[in-house]
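Researcher: Quick one. six chains, 1518 residues in total.
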Amino acid sequence: MSNPVKDAWKQGRAVVNGWLGIPSAFSAELMAKAGFDSLTVDMQHGIQDYMSTVACMQAIQAHPVTPLVRVPWLEQGIIGKVLDAGAMGVICPMINTPAEAKALVSACRYAPVGTRSFGPVRAAIYGQGGAYFDTANDDIAVIAMIETKQALDNLEAILDVPGIDAIYIGPSDLGITLGLPPRLDREEPEVMTIYERLLKEAAKRNIAVGLHNGTPEYALKMIKMGFRFTTVSNDAALVGVGALRDVAVMRKG
Amino acid sequence: MSNPVKDAWKQGRAVVNGWLGIPSAFSAELMAKAGFDSLTVDMQHGIQDYMSTVACMQAIQAHPVTPLVRVPWLEQGIIGKVLDAGAMGVICPMINTPAEAKALVSACRYAPVGTRSFGPVRAAIYGQGGAYFDTANDDIAVIAMIETKQALDNLEAILDVPGIDAIYIGPSDLGITLGLPPRLDREEPEVMTIYERLLKEAAKRNIAVGLHNGTPEYALKMIKMGFRFTTVSNDAALVGVGALRDVAVMRKG
Amino acid sequence: MSNPVKDAWKQGRAVVNGWLGIPSAFSAELMAKAGFDSLTVDMQHGIQDYMSTVACMQAIQAHPVTPLVRVPWLEQGIIGKVLDAGAMGVICPMINTPAEAKALVSACRYAPVGTRSFGPVRAAIYGQGGAYFDTANDDIAVIAMIETKQALDNLEAILDVPGIDAIYIGPSDLGITLGLPPRLDREEPEVMTIYERLLKEAAKRNIAVGLHNGTPEYALKMIKMGFRFTTVSNDAALVGVGALRDVAVMRKG
Amino acid sequence: MSNPVKDAWKQGRAVVNGWLGIPSAFSAELMAKAGFDSLTVDMQHGIQDYMSTVACMQAIQAHPVTPLVRVPWLEQGIIGKVLDAGAMGVICPMINTPAEAKALVSACRYAPVGTRSFGPVRAAIYGQGGAYFDTANDDIAVIAMIETKQALDNLEAILDVPGIDAIYIGPSDLGITLGLPPRLDREEPEVMTIYERLLKEAAKRNIAVGLHNGTPEYALKMIKMGFRFTTVSNDAALVGVGALRDVAVMRKG
Amino acid sequence: MSNPVKDAWKQGRAVVNGWLGIPSAFSAELMAKAGFDSLTVDMQHGIQDYMSTVACMQAIQAHPVTPLVRVPWLEQGIIGKVLDAGAMGVICPMINTPAEAKALVSACRYAPVGTRSFGPVRAAIYGQGGAYFDTANDDIAVIAMIETKQALDNLEAILDVPGIDAIYIGPSDLGITLGLPPRLDREEPEVMTIYERLLKEAAKRNIAVGLHNGTPEYALKMIKMGFRFTTVSNDAALVGVGALRDVAVMRKG
Amino acid sequence: MSNPVKDAWKQGRAVVNGWLGIPSAFSAELMAKAGFDSLTVDMQHGIQDYMSTVACMQAIQAHPVTPLVRVPWLEQGIIGKVLDAGAMGVICPMINTPAEAKALVSACRYAPVGTRSFGPVRAAIYGQGGAYFDTANDDIAVIAMIETKQALDNLEAILDVPGIDAIYIGPSDLGITLGLPPRLDREEPEVMTIYERLLKEAAKRNIAVGLHNGTPEYALKMIKMGFRFTTVSNDAALVGVGALRDVAVMRKG
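Model:
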């Protein structure tokens, strides 16, 4: 086993990520076929639960795409379950303190590093030669969301927690805690300054930085700025925005 | 109760239809919000079964959109089930003979017109004042797919069957039986000639004609030609094509 | 194995049947606990499909209640599936001709009597000593719905088809084909005359007669009249009518 | 967007609430049609999980009824998920201390009031003009269950936590912690004294008080006493009690 | 695209097939990992419906195993649906006459050969270069079950129907129609004689012959006899028989 | 109500337990029929969620087998939900401290012993005479997993927590925290020494000790050593290992 997402980060390449919010393995297959490097099942804000997450991961297994999961919250039970089901990485919302960062790492790693419980029922099917245990602590990507003012205040301490592979920025929540309206693809100078600080501090520690984007055009700019994990499409938005566009053409016609 | 799709046809207006192939009530809601006149759950080629069809119809009920269902095949059991579940119209594939057209009408109408069995468990929730039975035979749209050479050979006889409200053209299947490759948004002159014949014969009998389109631009042209029921978006295509486009932008970037 | 419903008929006792239209194994358990002799999953007009039917039968297995299924239509595929899943009887809608009656019997019986295919994957779990095959042709109840004028015209010929264990009257459909509005618990003299004829002809042939009722009070009268299989409750009606009643109390209060 | 339940409370009107414990969107529709002001999906003691909760909320969206959810426990992950899925209020069990009350409010409110994460994927479909964020902190009803002796000991401090819109009494759990058997529709004088205290303290702070009732008759009395949120029907009880009643009529007959 | 099962037949190799009767994509993955050449979702006697069939096919897509489906009955609607969902072959029960054989071939082939309708929504994801249509008529395996005395009587005429790729023997049903008890792994001389006739007549026409076996040991013997498609494991039996064996060890211990 | 598992422990008998990791009520029925004393739905490492757990418990209710659930983690919400759904015992992973042991007991017991909330919607269906509440605190088995070095360090204090009915050993996790590779059926002398200590300390306090085994043969040895709760089969392993064995026979043949 190995994790192409972590390999890309080691090589300084940016990962193109898609987002699965529709609880359908068929929709997930359609996304997988498009050629993303990774797909993230969004159990936090998507209409996804554990079973739909498993179904999505089963459906994309045939494609050369790395399965990731954003869990609903920092809770060890669900983190263990999605890893056992085959997720190659966990994005965890609202990591605001070093203690939370440590708890996240612990939930994702077997002893002696952490407290993950052993039983990778589905994950081991796809591990090489039964060696899932031997490499899982290295392979699984631990991705902490930095998305509040509190997290920024604790940034260095959070990044210093051993075992954080990447951080992921939620622009809407970050904005809200800064007193700005929620939105993606932000341009405010104060936010840009924050992004630069995040990239700099993360780079010092060899930690990749990811961003949730609304458009590929914006994501491309962010890759140039240094982001190495960029979400650029969301199945629910593809349906919703695409349908609105088609209806608009008809109504104008 | 009344059926806005049939009302539009009576008034000569074209209906803008969306297509639901992803078995997800959430995806269906996103489509419903876009403003289509009607949404068709595709039980034939979509990844849909009876339960997902019910879930999609439940989810779009809050929106001003008329729920239609394309059934898998001319089979009275499933036609009755989707009508009982609240479909306001049935699109039935492969109506190639007058006998098949009669069987379709019969399955959609209560006696003495047809043989539909009474028990509109979900449909009656949304009927007005318990009067579902009184108006259902008028309200339900019976839509026969004309999509083979055999159907063209029998066209007038099929159209003469009392109770057919509309016909719906499947360009791929029609093409295949004519020796052409399957595709939407056809431009072949021989196909245009067929479309003209269909529109003319249907118009004589006050029957609306619908078409499955790949793009709204093509659909607009077809409305000008006389089509009154045009499918212009497909949730699965919105995801698949949209994702490919986004990834392409990233890979080029 | 044996079938308590058929045993009751042999002994001249009336069977009290409940109706499952809500696709929930939990709702089915609540019904099962109430003490019905049998419960019928309604795949025709209920919001039920094959999988919800299996789940309902699994959930009621712990209770002393005989599982029956009303199939959507006379189609051998689904009849075989529900029997394999453990149904002890099949109620089939719209048996209007002796040919349809014969097809129904054939679908429910193994050769040489019929054409049922062998593979009772779930049913055999609950058969005694693996002897499912040996007794299934005797145990399974074949119940033909008589619910149209056409069926009345063919009544004697239908009843003469060997293997029909019972007939079941659908008062709404029967009414519709007679030009009456659909309803349960009918009182029209012409309908009573029909019921008397049905009871008399069936009794001659040792065939039980069942009726779909709206209230237990009416069902009790019908048992006195000779009916031996009476549906008296419907989970969907219990919810819908009960909720309306509770809200009415509150609004008056 | 606005929340009719909160509007009613502002105007001093009592809200008539129904309870959804059967995991079925169809059952939920039947309840919705009955005319309740609000319906609460019970994820704590009902046979409901996140996906069935979403399905129930989708199915009742077409009706003028406000969707609420009782979450299984005070856990921010699931609170965020049901709000994102469109719940207009959260009932949280076992709020026994001011700290728990604060955590509940925090989970339901965006910064700077709380720590809810932004991503109302389904909720925003039904928000007006994309303005979900602008009004959500005002619209969402935060309802803390007071149902233990410990909560009574901390009552004033709990009620003083800013952001609690209502409290909801669980008579069974309250009884248990007082050494009484679990039951609804209690009449014990000591309990009445507690209810009076709750109503008085809540009224001082403009907080509505709700009660879980077993019958509409009892609920009416409680409205006169001052309760402004009264649960009066439960789909599972409607099935279970109704079926028992019907069978009893038959067995007596 | 190509079909490794048909390739094996062309090369005279025997295909080792597994059987999926448990409606679980996870169970299907476990089977897929075991190294079968093909896996057949059993929609006839297994606890499978269309949606569970799709889920099983999605889950095994990552493995080098060819997905086949046994449909419930000869019905064009479901045959089209499983092919559109990605089945590379259809096993159809109870093909007893040349007319039934022709109907089966027709349902599996596009015009001009047959009457399959075009819309391979999931299948095309895994077709090469969008060329699904071009090769599907060649790639899809049409497998007719020969399992009754009537079919034996019509054997040559059935085998002469163009487009039958293989026949599949159901030993239980075959036995029943011959007056023998249902069982697998038969040894009766009269059955062996039948098998020899089947193999001889099929070989003449270049048609592969398959058999449903209860043990791999018996299947190996049958391969030596000439069978080229042998089912040797069944997930439900692996659970049921394996659990009985483990409990027996414990009870004896 | 009573709990046969606790009865067995009182009488010093060993309980033979099966393990459900496949999310299928059908697979659960097959396991139940095999004759285990108890079956445990594994929500931690199995592909199970709350709804599949309920379905499995519904399906095994007809069999004389006691339903247990391993919850994903020590979280009161899910513990309450599985008990309300009818679990007769809870196995909780990773009980490492007396505080965690107390929290587990509290979540499983009604006041005044614990903090379980009342509402046994499904459990009460199967309680005797509505007396679920009266005996639940005695009947429900509270089973703490001892599976880390930390738990061993705290062993006596954990066992001294009132209300722990049994402990359950996870050999893989125990091994990992001891620096050994994860596996079942361990033979290392240091592990045997630990098992002996666990059995001795538990016996002093009348607490049963359970073990997760890979084979019945090993389990029999462990029963002789003193274990009174032995898991000996796992549905997922029966499928996976059984299929591998069958394919191996074929490939060798």
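Chain F has 13 helices and eight strands.
Researcher: Thanks, that's what I needed.
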